[in-house]
Amino acid sequence: MSANIVIDGIFVGNGVGSVALASVNVAVPVWSIVISISLLIGVGGGTLYSIASGAQDTEKAQRAFTLAMTSITVIMIVIGITGYFAVEPLAYLFGANDETLAYATDYMQIIFMWAPILAWENALSIFVRNDGSPKLAMIGLVISALLNIVLDYWMIFILNMEVTGAALASVIATAIGLLIYCIHFLKNGSGLKFIRKPWQQDDLMMIGKLGMPNFLSEAGTAVFVVGYNTALAYYAGTTGLAAFSVINYLHTFMFLAFIGIGQSIQPIISFYYGAQKYASIKHTVKIAEITTVLLGIGFLIVGWTGAGGLVSIFGIEDEAVRQLAKKGIMLFFIGYVFMGINFIYMTYYQSIAYVRPSIGITLFRGFILLIAALLILPLWLDTTGIWLALPAAEALTAIFLLLVARPGIMRKELKNRGL
């Protein structure tokens, strides 16, 4: 899904223009709404599903799946209808002006219209992974991303559908991914079944509780965007805002990549937790640590060696914007070395149904420390301090977790929390 957003930005920037690129950036919060809610219910339901599966409680697992998918359907229908008919006020709320309004509303209406499909695809991919088919989930995501590239080119450059084409390309590609996930229902031994059992309020409360850290992480994107926009508008004006639009598109991809790694270990940890296999949980955490650190270093190397190329793919020609964006990439990408560690431990606590530390990690790295860094660092370092705000927040959180939380996690014995 993160690839779809970035691909839209690349094709719109090169095929329609910088105003259209800014317009699609205005519409990014709509994606955040869809993704955050599908993560809230999907990850919460998926965690409960895996814990119940590990404990051999098939009825509870299927009840969690049914409740999660039904809840997502109802919520997305309400949001889709409301957003479609209130699209102009929402566009202005998200930062549109008279110049970008038309493009922004065209894009947003398509996303709101098909919001249930977008949310189903994200949530079902989580359940497919939790039910033992990670390869199918990966195939669906890869095919969806590749198809979106083809459709973006066809609709923008061939059919001249501008931002409407970009939105339709994302929807169609996502729908194909959803169809691929449905193959899992035909698989022998599939545990994903809709049942007509009485719903229990405790299940709904637990789904919301378990999914809250992911919801807050995605919702924190709004804090991140508003904070950076405000700081850069004050210290660098329009040039700073234009440079940030490039980095924000790139950050969306990197950020959701780490969320994806967190989602990949969640079903493993939850299942082992339900099955009382704590040594396997420790092993999973260690592998995840290595993976995220290597990925973060890889992102940093790409940023340091290819900053100019990353800016160019969005069609940015203004030299002042290019230079500020290149500087921002080289500083901002330092945060990715630490970000993965934070998501690993957030996911660990969430996966064993110990949500309080998970929420604490999310609030500190994405809200408290980030806002403090955006207020303090620019006073000393000007725009350099703005670019370093996120790396500082991620680094402080990661260092604390490695020094304080990790030793305890690696030593303690498993204590089932009775779910």
Automatic annotation (TrEMBL):
The keyword Transmembrane applies. The chain crosses the membrane at residues 30-52, 64-87, 107-124, 136-159, 165-186, 215-237, 249-273, 293-316, 328-348, 360-380, 386-405. Keywords: Antibiotic resistance, Cell membrane, Membrane, Transmembrane, Transmembrane helix, Transport. It is a multi-pass membrane protein. It holds the Pfam family MatE. It comes from the Bacteria. It comes from Lentibacillus kimchii. CDD domains: MATE_MepA_like. This is Multidrug export protein MepA. Signal peptide: none annotated. Its main location: membrane. Belongs to the multi antimicrobial extrusion (MATE) (TC 2.A.66.1) family. MepA subfamily. It is found in: Cell membrane.
